[in-house]
Design goal:
Helix content is 43%, strand content 14%. The chain has eleven helices and eight strands. Strand 7, helix 10 (219-223) and strand 8 form a beta-alpha-beta unit. Bound molecules: 2-phosphoglycolic acid.
Length: 257
């Protein structure tokens, strides 16, 4: 069985004190839910203090982005190696907001995954179509190109732990969740593609998260879908109660499976 992941993407929210408070509160309340991987991704500047707040717990730290080079004259950038050195375990790569506002492409996503893998960070690779692409019937093509482009050149072993997050752009921060059926269809397609590109074993074990307006009220219906293995959650991960609630619900569902 694939172990579920509940990953909170804090985006550009929370100053230092707020970030530490949120992380500490989450830490206290999720310890008992040991059948779920709990991940939080604060902004860069808060990573070190949040790492301290969750030290020796079963909540893990993620960064939201990185540069692909080890170091160099790249003003304003942060490398995967630096992130590893301060205690990150996961890294979100290719989020649609990065693609949309900061010019990220399948090529840069591919390079960043390479950097993450080289530093033993677990990439959470985001893929997903825009509203226009969905309306034009191009969802499958776009998601396929994100997956194949992002994974280009990797061996099965290198991407063994990599997590894929399907996030339809039109569902992010809009309150418009994909229906469980819509999400499941794309998740199944992605799993099939991983099988085609690699193997049945990798496809069977690959964790694929759904993201886009996930909240305590809709998480169970989504998680009940066969190919959905967790959530990458923005807005609803910014409050202790709601994050904990989503972890609890996921844990209970998987307990019963
Ligand atoms: P949302 O964001 O949950 O606020 O829609 C999800 C994401 O962008 O990862």
């Amino acid at each position: 069985m694939r172990r579920p992941v509940i990953a909170g993407n804090w985006k550009m929210y929370k100053d230092l004190n707020e970030a530490v408070e949120l992380a500490s509160g989450i830490r206290k309340q999720v310890q008992e839910f040991d059948n779920v991987d709990k991940v939080i991704a604060p902004p860069f500047v808060n990573l070190t203090e949040v790492a301290k707040a969750i030290a020796d717990s079963n909540v893990y730290l993620a960064a939201q982005n990185c540069h692909w080079e080890k170091e160099g004259a790249f003003t304003g950038e942060v490398s995967a190696r630096m992130l590893k050195s301060i205690g990150c375990r996961y890294i979100i790569i290719g989020h649609s907001e990065r693609r949309q506002y900061f010019g990220e492409t399948n090529e840069t996503v591919n390079l960043k995954i390479k950097a993450a893998v080289a530093n033993n960070l677990i990439p959470i690779m985001c893929v997903g179509e825009t509203l226009q692409e969905r309306e034009e019937g191009r969802t499958v093509d776009v998601v396929k190109s994100h997956v194949t482009g992002g994974l280009k050149g990797f061996t099965e072993k290198e991407i063994d732990s990599l997590i894929i997050a399907y996030e339809p752009v039109w569902a992010i921060g809009t309150g418009k969740t994909a229906t469980p059926k819509q999400a499941q269809e794309v998740h199944r397609m992605i799993r099939g593609l991983v099988k085609e590109l690699y193997s049945e074993t990798l496809a069977k074990n690959k964790r694929i998260l759904y993201g886009g307006s996930v909240k305590p009220e809709n998480i169970e219906e989504l998680m009940k879908q066969e190919d959905i293995d967790g959530g990458l959650i923005g807005g609803a991960s910014l409050k202790i109660d709601s994050y904990v609630d989503m972890v609890r619900k996921t844990s209970e569902l998987y307990e019963g499976k």
